[in-house]
């Protein structure tokens, strides 16, 4: 191939993901088993299609936007922060053991004492062990019931928990 043709081909390959995203193909909300998409009244213009005598910038005058109706298995991203018994010092490399109906799994905290997991609704016994101390607790994730606009955040809901080890 000629250099000019290769240059054009490489430019097309670089720009294709951007076109797909802005065209909407790659801009889909995170969906879990049982979730549904539905049209509901635009929350910005209350379904009127206008804001301050102008076309609504969110629904573009269509009066409706897509919402995700959460199914029974929609996970929540749980971010945990693990602290030493003093409640101030973060604990890097603490060993974590989760138990779930599907079995158990293990992780460790990063250098800032953080860990994260997508957890579906349910109760999860959690064991944290490190040289600074240990903690046994249960993480309870409630089912999602509130519809959320699909255009705002294409990820699963998130919550942040704080865990303080005991000696």
Keyword list:
extended; mainly beta; 1 helix; four-stranded antiparallel sheet; Immunoglobulin-like; three-stranded antiparallel sheet; single chain
CATH superfamily of the largest domain: Immunoglobulins
Query: How many strands, which pairing sense, and closed or not: the largest β-sheet?
Result: 4 strands, antiparallel
Under the CATH scheme, which architecture of the largest domain would be assigned? Answer: Sandwich
Strand content: 35-45%
Assembly form of the protein? single chain
Unreliable stretches = none
CATH class of the largest domain: Mainly Beta
Q: In percent, how helical is the residue content?
A: 10-25%
Domains counted in the coordinates: how many?
2
Number of helices: 1
Q: How are the strands ordered across the major sheet?
A: 7-6-9-10
Order of helices and strands: HEEEEEEEEEEEE
**Distance N terminus to C terminus?**
68 Å
CATH fold-type name of the largest domain: Immunoglobulin-like
Overall pLDDT metric: 87
Shape: extended
Radius of gyration: 23 Å
Structural classification: mainly beta
């Amino acid at each position: 191939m000629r250099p000019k043709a290769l240059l054009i081909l490489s430019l097309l390959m670089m720009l294709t993901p951007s076109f797909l995203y802005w065209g909407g193909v790659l801009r889909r909300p995170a969906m879990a088993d049982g979730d549904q998409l539905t049209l509901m009244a635009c929350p910005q213009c209350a379904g009127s299609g206008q804001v301050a005598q102008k076309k609504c910038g969110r629904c573009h005058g269509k009066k409706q936007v897509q919402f995700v109706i959460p199914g029974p298995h929609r996970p929540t991203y749980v971010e945990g922060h693990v602290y030493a018994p003093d409640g101030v010092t973060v604990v890097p490399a603490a060993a974590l053991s989760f138990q779930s109906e599907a079995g158990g799994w293990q992780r460790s905290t990063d250098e800032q004492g953080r860990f994260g997991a997508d957890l579906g609704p349910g109760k999860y016994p959690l064991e944290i062990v490190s040289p600074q101390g240990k903690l046994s607790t249960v993480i309870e994730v409630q089912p999602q019931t509130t519809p959320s606009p699909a255009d705002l955040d294409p990820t699963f809901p998130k919550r942040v928990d704080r865990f303080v080890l005991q000696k």
